Amino acid sequence: MSSYTLALQTEEDFLRQKSRVQWLKAGDRDTHVKSEAIRHFQNILGCSMPSRHGSRSLRNVIEKQISNDQADYMSREVTNDEIHKACFSLHPNKAPGPDGFNAHFFKKTWHIVGDDVINVIQEFFHSGLLLKELNATILALVPKVPNPSKMTDFRPITCCNTLYKIIAKIIANRIKPCLPDIISPSQSAFVAGRRIGDSILLVQELMRDYHKDAGRPKLALKVDLMKAFDRVDWGFLLDTLASFHFLLKVINWIKVCLTTPKFSISINGELAGFFSGKRGLRQGDPMSPYLFVIAMEVLSKLLANHIMDTANFKYHWRCDKLKLSHLSYVDDLIMLCHGSYHSALVLKSALDEFFLLSGLCANHAKSNIFILGVPVAVGQQLINLFGYSVGPLPIRYLGIPIISSKLNLRDCSPLVDKVSSRLSSWLNRCFSFAGRLQLIISVLTSIQVFWASHLYLLKRIFFLGK
């Protein structure tokens, strides 16, 4: 019986590996697509931003820093047990990097390769040098729309080598405990003790009544950051870490990890190109979420400084006691203030300075402005100031529709569509009855529960979700 079980497991592993292969269709090789992909992503990742002039020093912007104990904690010697835990915490079946070995391989063969892995990782943390081959990276293109027709319709997800992931995981695990002390309450992503639901409920309340024709003067901005992770300037990020009192030893570890990758693009199962990056954080790198949150904290500090330096700034009337000017969840940014032009100008100047420093920029086509309770002339001034279009309601924030009135069936159509698309994708697959039941319980129910935890869903929606 044990040999039969082993044979089934071996067959399952073989089929899982085989399912990753995407064979080219019969015919000529489409070199044009490869060339276009290389050109597009090399322009994004392989272009550094010009020198920043006229901006204030980050050390003058960032006042709250990590403690000496936290700095020493991050720079302490790496232990063998820490390396072992980092390796075994990685998802076993994530797509491998260029070397072809995923975390599952290292876990199963740890008794053979464990000592060598430990030696490689220890060598990096002792010398601060990283073999370039270890930081070679595959860009897997994930469609953002059902029928992608151009390169901007793809999201580049990086597939890093497992040895590099172990290094990055160790650094990330050391950064994570320090974030609650240096990240302002306006950010809630990847910070221990802060929940996504709090941000959704708060935005839901602050966006109320924007559908009305009259009310207290107020302004809200939904800022879409264009290619946010891919555009972060390395120099800015390293300066930010130094301003937060990260020790030079830790900054050098991060610098080596950031600045040494080489990228190849996976197209139809083949790798194309081999180019260096000059900016950006890799989506798929264990460090990237925490580094991006630290980078976005500069915006929080700039906003606080600009507001403090301006006597005539007025907060959104519901945010006055909290002194809340914005909410940020990774690259989802909501900014709020009174509906006056002078208050909006403060937000604009802080945002422009942040863009100048960080290399990020707003996607004007996807950013929106919401105005209530101001004269038509003032409203037009605000629209011209930011260059954003007046947004339709409801807006989507963190996957949930932000409604300004009572929820109706049309507002719930994204939920119904998402459940329907999942069901249609399962119809042609050979699942047992138990397998289908498990999918419904674990996938469909979780989608509905996420919505229901933030909105009072209609009874009809509960019926459709069953």
UniProtKB/TrEMBL annotation:
<keyword id="KW-0812">Transmembrane</keyword>
<dbReference type="InterPro" id="IPR000477">
    <property type="entry name" value="RT_dom"/>
</dbReference>
<protein>
    <recommendedName>
        <fullName>Reverse transcriptase domain-containing protein</fullName>
    </recommendedName>
</protein>
<keyword id="KW-1133">Transmembrane helix</keyword>
<dbReference type="Pfam" id="PF00078">
    <property type="entry name" value="RVT_1"/>
</dbReference>
<dbReference type="InterPro" id="IPR043502">
    <property type="entry name" value="DNA/RNA_pol_sf"/>
</dbReference>
<feature type="domain" description="Reverse transcriptase">
    <location>
        <begin position="123"/>
        <end position="390"/>
    </location>
</feature>
<keyword id="KW-0472">Membrane</keyword>
<feature type="transmembrane region" description="Helical">
    <location>
        <begin position="437"/>
        <end position="458"/>
    </location>
</feature>
<dbReference type="InterPro" id="IPR052343">
    <property type="entry name" value="Retrotransposon-Effector_Assoc"/>
</dbReference>
